[in-house]
Amino acid sequence: MGEGTAGIVRCELLGPLRALRDGAEIPLGPPKQRAVLAVLLLQEGRTLSYDGLVEAVWGGAPPVHVRNLVQKYVSGLRRALGDGVLLEWTGTGYRLTGAVIGDLADRRLLVDEALTARDTGEVRRAVELARRAEELWRGDFAEGLRAPSLAAERLRWAEKRLTVLEARLEGEIALGRSFEYVHELVRLVATHPLRERLVELLMLALCRLGRPSDALSAYEGARQRLAEAMGADPGPALRSLHARVLRQDPELLPSPSPVVPVG
C-alpha cells in the first residue's frame, strides 16, 4: 500500500460484510464471492491454500465446478477492490493484502482499554469503553454469509460479544444502576436461559434493589432449566451467590440512602 491512509480499503465484519474506500461502500458481488472475501480477510495477510479456501467456504461437499467458481470469485474481488488491494496466488495459496478489518481492530483496542481501566479501578471509564465496543456491532458476525468456517466464527464472536456485555452490565451494577438494567437482564436471561453468568448478574441486580425473593426465584428457574436441558446443577459461582442470598449477605443488600441533615 502507498503511504498515508487515503485509498485504504476498510472492511467490517461486525454485522453484514462491507468494504469502504474513502467512506464510500464498494459493491462486493454475490454472497459466495463475499464469503470468499470474508474468509481471506480473516487470514490477516496469511496465505490460505486452495483446498483450505474451498473447505472454509463450501465445506466437505463442494460443487463439482468449484475450481471455476473460485477463479470467478477471485477475479470478481480483484475488480471490485481495485488498486491498492492485492489478492494474489502465491504458488501455495491465496493471499489478500491491502485491506484492513477496521471494526475488529477498533473493538480490540476498546476492549483492551476497558480491561485496563477495570483493573485499575476506573469502573466508570471501563463501562463507557465497553459500551463503545458494543456499539460497533451492526448485526451478527458476517451476517447473511453461509460458509462453514464463518458459521464457526459467528458462534465464537457471539460468545465474545456476550462476554463484553456481561462485563459492562457488571460495571453498571457496581455503579448503582441496577434499576436501569434489571429489565435488560431479564430479557437476556430469557434469550440465553442456560447462561449462568447472566443469571448471576440478574440476581445481583435484584438484591441491590431490595428484591432477594425475586433473586431466589431467578436462581430456582435457572436450576430447573439446567436440570431439564443438561441434567446438571448450577455451577459453583451461581451456587455460591445463591447461598449468599439465603444468608442475607450484607454486601448484597441495597446501599443505605444517605441521611440528609435537617435544619
Task: Give a quick summary of the entry.
This protein is an alpha+beta fold and 263 residues long. The protein has 10 helices and 6 strands; from the N terminus they run E-E-E-H-H-H-E-E-E-H-H-H-H-H-H-H.
Key traits:
263 residues; alpha+beta; four-stranded mixed sheet; two-stranded antiparallel ribbon; 10 helices; elongated; disordered C terminus
Report on the structure:
The structure is a single chain. The chain is of the alpha+beta class and 263 residues long. Helix content is 57%, strand content 8%. The protein contains ten helices and six strands. The strands form two sheets. Strands 3-2-1-6 form a four-stranded mixed sheet. It starts with 8 loop residues before the first strand and ends in a 17-residue tail after the last helix.
